[in-house]
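G., the chain you wanted modeled:
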Amino acid sequence: MRLDEFKQAIKREFGPNLEHATPANIREFLDRLQQQGRTPGLQDRIELSETKVTYEEILRDFFVRVLDYPPEEAVILLWTMAFELSFSALEVHLADRLGSLFGDMEP
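Predicted structure as C-alpha coordinates:
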Protein backbone atom coordinates (compact mmCIF):
# COMPACT_ATOMS: atom_id res chain seq x y z
CA MET A 1 0.00 0.00 0.00
CA ARG A 2 1.28 3.43 -0.90
CA LEU A 3 1.32 6.24 1.66
CA ASP A 4 -1.39 8.25 -0.13
CA GLU A 5 -3.65 5.16 -0.20
CA PHE A 6 -2.96 4.61 3.49
CA LYS A 7 -3.89 8.22 4.32
CA GLN A 8 -7.13 7.91 2.36
CA ALA A 9 -8.00 4.64 4.13
CA ILE A 10 -7.37 6.24 7.54
CA LYS A 11 -9.55 9.26 6.75
CA ARG A 12 -12.30 7.07 5.29
CA GLU A 13 -12.31 4.84 8.36
CA PHE A 14 -11.88 7.40 11.16
CA GLY A 15 -12.75 10.79 9.66
CA PRO A 16 -10.44 13.63 8.57
CA ASN A 17 -9.45 14.42 12.17
CA LEU A 18 -9.69 10.84 13.48
CA GLU A 19 -12.87 11.85 15.30
CA HIS A 20 -14.38 8.38 14.90
CA ALA A 21 -11.35 6.48 16.24
CA THR A 22 -11.88 4.20 19.23
CA PRO A 23 -9.68 1.41 20.62
CA ALA A 24 -12.12 -1.18 19.25
CA ASN A 25 -12.45 0.10 15.69
CA ILE A 26 -8.72 0.80 15.48
CA ARG A 27 -8.03 -2.86 16.30
CA GLU A 28 -10.57 -3.98 13.68
CA PHE A 29 -9.07 -1.67 11.05
CA LEU A 30 -5.52 -2.85 11.74
CA ASP A 31 -6.65 -6.48 11.58
CA ARG A 32 -8.21 -5.82 8.16
CA LEU A 33 -5.04 -4.08 6.98
CA GLN A 34 -3.00 -7.07 8.04
CA GLN A 35 -5.37 -9.47 6.24
CA GLN A 36 -5.13 -7.41 3.05
CA GLY A 37 -1.35 -7.51 3.20
CA ARG A 38 -1.12 -11.29 3.37
CA THR A 39 0.62 -13.12 0.57
CA PRO A 40 -1.89 -14.96 -1.65
CA GLY A 41 -1.82 -18.68 -0.96
CA LEU A 42 -0.16 -18.26 2.42
CA GLN A 43 -1.34 -20.90 4.87
CA ASP A 44 -2.86 -19.83 8.17
CA ARG A 45 -0.13 -21.69 10.02
CA ILE A 46 3.11 -19.72 10.10
CA GLU A 47 6.35 -20.95 11.59
CA LEU A 48 8.40 -18.26 13.25
CA SER A 49 12.10 -18.74 13.66
CA GLU A 50 12.38 -15.89 16.15
CA THR A 51 15.58 -15.78 18.17
CA LYS A 52 14.39 -12.93 20.38
CA VAL A 53 12.84 -14.12 23.63
CA THR A 54 11.76 -10.97 25.47
CA TYR A 55 9.35 -8.25 24.44
CA GLU A 56 12.17 -5.71 24.70
CA GLU A 57 14.35 -7.72 22.31
CA ILE A 58 11.50 -8.02 19.83
CA LEU A 59 10.86 -4.26 19.95
CA ARG A 60 14.53 -3.42 19.50
CA ASP A 61 14.75 -5.78 16.54
CA PHE A 62 11.63 -4.26 14.96
CA PHE A 63 12.94 -0.70 15.28
CA VAL A 64 16.37 -1.63 13.93
CA ARG A 65 14.84 -3.39 10.92
CA VAL A 66 12.35 -0.60 10.16
CA LEU A 67 15.29 1.80 9.67
CA ASP A 68 16.19 -0.16 6.54
CA TYR A 69 12.68 -0.14 5.05
CA PRO A 70 11.72 2.20 2.22
CA PRO A 71 10.57 5.52 3.74
CA GLU A 72 6.86 5.16 2.86
CA GLU A 73 6.70 1.63 4.26
CA ALA A 74 8.51 2.71 7.43
CA VAL A 75 6.11 5.63 7.97
CA ILE A 76 3.07 3.35 7.64
CA LEU A 77 4.51 0.74 10.02
CA LEU A 78 5.57 3.27 12.64
CA TRP A 79 2.32 5.27 12.38
CA THR A 80 0.11 2.20 12.79
CA MET A 81 2.17 0.97 15.73
CA ALA A 82 2.02 4.37 17.46
CA PHE A 83 -1.72 4.70 16.72
CA GLU A 84 -2.52 1.29 18.16
CA LEU A 85 -0.29 1.68 21.23
CA SER A 86 -1.64 5.16 22.01
CA PHE A 87 -5.25 4.06 21.93
CA SER A 88 -4.45 0.86 23.83
CA ALA A 89 -2.91 2.99 26.57
CA LEU A 90 -6.02 5.19 26.52
CA GLU A 91 -8.24 2.12 26.87
CA VAL A 92 -6.27 0.96 29.94
CA HIS A 93 -6.37 4.46 31.44
CA LEU A 94 -10.13 4.75 30.95
CA ALA A 95 -10.72 1.28 32.37
CA ASP A 96 -8.78 2.27 35.49
CA ARG A 97 -10.76 5.50 35.87
CA LEU A 98 -14.11 3.83 35.32
CA GLY A 99 -13.13 0.94 37.57
CA SER A 100 -12.48 3.36 40.41
CA LEU A 101 -15.91 4.93 39.87
CA PHE A 102 -17.83 1.67 39.67
CA GLY A 103 -15.47 -0.74 41.42
CA ASP A 104 -17.32 -0.71 44.72
CA MET A 105 -20.58 -1.84 43.15
CA GLU A 106 -21.46 -5.46 43.91
CA PRO A 107 -23.95 -7.31 41.67
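Residues 3-32+50-102 form one domain.

Shout if anything looks off.
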